[in-house]
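---------- Forwarded message ----------

FYI, see the DUF309 domain-containing protein record below. Original note from H. follows.
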Amino acid sequence: MVSDSNPTPGSLPSALRRGIEQFNQGDYYACHDTLEAIWMDAETFEKPFYQGILQIAVGFYHLSRENRNGAAILLGEGSSRLRRFEPEHEGVAVADLVDQALVWLALLQSESADVTALSSAIAQRRPVETSEGPLPLPQISVQTA
């Protein structure tokens, strides 16, 4: 089994830690590859946790390629899959990640969404300007002990 009972940032499984780092650096494709390897070997209960994170990562990868539909589908599916693990699992702030993904999903689904501008912001690793102010790029937070 991949999980620890009360993980701290230093005790996260190394592949999960690497996947989180890749996600937070905007390397969504590499994050997918890293987490897919964990997901394939995970216990049945853990599989949706890893799959949810990797679906959100692939959603952002699709968005970086200006694929609005693919991004929307995967952000929604990944968020739904992670709900049962809220608020925290494996030391990961799941509720925060889901909230971030849903904000981006709502932005994508708005009529005023400029997918080219969103894609550019992801590629340049900068916040997106919205009518409500800058929207930062998503980050996976790890709970500290």
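H. also flagged this: Residues 9-135 form a domain with the Hyaluronidase domain-like fold (CATH 1.10.3450.10).
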